[in-house]
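Researcher: Here's a chain I'd like modeled. Treat it as a single chain, no partners, no ligands.
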Amino acid sequence: MDKPDPEAVAQDVFAALADPTRRSILAALAMNGPATATDLANRLPITRQAIAKHLTLLAEARLVVAAPGERRRVRYRLDSAPMKIAQNFLAALARDWDGPLAALRDHLGDQS
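Model: Modeled as a single isolated chain. Structure tokens:
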């Protein structure tokens, strides 16, 4: 199996996190553990159908994993691996900026 492209994974994560409802769903799963779409709809001010659509997008970004439960109910749980890849992507960008920003700060400091 090929290793996922970190930039593509980060793009999927950032696109998924751009929506406040999806961030709320992830926060609910982080706080309360695995849940069904119905469980989440009972906790959040959004319909079960809307939750299901958002969960599909979160699953496509690999931020949640669907696991069959009792009576054909699907429970969703968080998967932190894509988030860690996105964090590493951001950390690399920050490192790339740290040197030039420090040089600019030093240069501007020399100007005064």
